[in-house]
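User: Hi! I'm working on a homework problem where we have to compare a predicted structure to a textbook description. Could you give me the structure for the chain below?
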Amino acid sequence: MTIGSVVINAELFDTPTADAIYEAAPFGATAMTWGDEVYFSTPVAPDREADARAVVEAGELAFWTDGDAIAIGYGPTPISQGDEIRLASPCNLWGRALDDVKQLRAVSGGASVTVERAE
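Assistant: Happy to help. Predicted structure tokens:
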């Protein structure tokens, strides 16, 4: 994923959400921010998985089923309690970033996003 000037490579989990994102790639979007989270729309709409959760760890890649968006938290959001990374609602975890997601602090809302398969 290229989000603004930041490149995040990902390890995909064996989940229906990861499969849907992989099959849809390549696609583009526009980044939005919410506290220390970057999120962007996708052309996929998987169902919420049984192990979906709202509190994630930095580096976990989430899919916000309520908004059909990839959500990448790297620090507290407006609804976090303390230092936790709390997303807007339970999200499907579909992968892990292989690069430091704290780089996303450099991304502003409106930045261009490209999601593509690794060669």
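For your comparison, note the following. The chain has one domain: 2-115. Residues 2-115 form a domain with the Cyclophilin fold (CATH 2.40.100.20). Good luck with the assignment!
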